[in-house]
Amino acid sequence: xxxxxxxxxxxxxxxxxxxxxxxxxxxxxxxxxxxxxxxxxxxxxxxxxxxxxxxxxxxxxxxxxxxxxxxxxxxxxxxxxxxxxxxxxxxxxxxxxxxxxxxxxxxxxxxxxxxxxxxxxxxxxxxxxxxxxxxxxxxxxxxxxxxxxxxxxxxxxxxxxxxxxxxxxxxxxxxxxxxxxxxxxxxxxxxxxxxxxxxxxxxxxxxxxxxxxxxxxxxxxxxxxxxxxxxxxxxxxxxxxxxxxxxxxxxxxxxxxxxxxxxxxxxxxxxxxxxxxxxxxxxxxxxxxxxxxxxxxxxxxxxxxxxxxxxxxxxxxxxxxxxxxxxxxxxxxxxxxxxxxxxxxxxxxxxxxxxxxxxxxxxxxxxxxxxxxxxxxxxxxxxxxxxxxxxxxxxxxxxxxxxxxxxxxxxxxxxxxxxxxxxxxxxxxxxxxxxxxxxxxxxxxxxxxxxxxxxxxxxxxxxxxxxxxxxxxxxxxxxxxxxxxxxxxxxxxxxxxxxxxxxxxxxxxxxxxxxxxxxxxxxxxxxxxxxxxxxxxxxxxxxxxxxxxxxxxxxxxxxxxxxxxxxxx
Length: 569
What we know:
By secondary structure, this protein is an alpha/beta fold.
């Protein structure tokens, strides 16, 4: 008998298929969006230990994924191009890449085996050089692991759910419900929950798969059944033709946005739907995608939504139903990591918050944390927005708690909650990691996530009649609703007069040349999220600073010299 058969261990098949290949082990989770090149399968996240390795054709092991909900789309793109991993193997619950594998198999007929293994079997497989998945068996060296198929047979469905499964609302709704049921089974729940609204993330033309998927679903007759907003897209929807965007790209990006509008979604085109006038309220059960939006909704607003992968967000909006697991449940919202934060002794600026979010994600990459020690500080909504966005780059968790500041921070931690700490040396390390860029600044990027009205006001105040340097661009990406309010206040005219460019509909996650000035090499941002992903998205390392630092860099053409004052210990 093999080692695993002797211990009685077995794994679960979540998405089936046959596979063989070399084993690639990622000791920490990887965000496929911003972390894997959809054109080559190469890991491009410079902060990841496996940077430079290729996932294509490999048996890819990682504890779970992390980062953006858009990873499912990157995986589908790789699958459609024949560049996907041979198989995915996880040891913890994982939704983003699992959903991408199910869509690849169920909608496009391209199997991508996805397996969940218990700890011992996972550790044994991680020491192997090659592995084979065939039928209900995974073999590697002298290791053989029995596999059982995940079944949705025990799921308790309503009459409406069953009617959708039976195809009574058409093929698109049937496929949506089938995949929802498989995801529920994979997540270990027998229930679906009603949601009151949705938010669609997969509308950025980062690759062809998003357009192929959206138009396929629209052509099949897909329609949302609950109020649904749309994330930022890849072009300024109304003005791209005058912005020297290549016609083919602009038309395809518009077709992608139009496909979701055809399916009944509201053309909000913002990655910060919590800034809209009808933002969710505490206790609302919603079905959102987009990592920063999900984390902010749970953490700051007290609404309830897991970090749904791209494409599952559409299925949830179509059916009004979602797997009743994770942070939909009280237990799923309990902190399982307690992070004691020691802030610097003196006053901090707004750079503190994205650095803290990035560090908190590293300290709790797969569990909801509780941050303590910050009770005497006074973060604004914009500070919390920046923290949540940065947290999502390094953690797969859909929320965090901050003692003294967030509505559910008094939830009792799990009895086995891990304890971690963050202190001044950690902030210095984070600053150094996210400030690899040049000191000369050609481009200042604000609006990842989309800028708020208060941020637009603050930029105008900081400029105080000054202009951006002739060689430095200051570009703010902003939701069209917030832009309308800024225009009504006269802020747009003031900012334009100072050389600031405000662009609606797209955000820095989707900005390409020539909106991203091709000649720009020195890049600065106030976004921990964009500083983390910038090199993978643009080929440029970034500098990260406060909003005041960014404005000074735009006026003077240079980043601040060295650490911020509050970190010079």
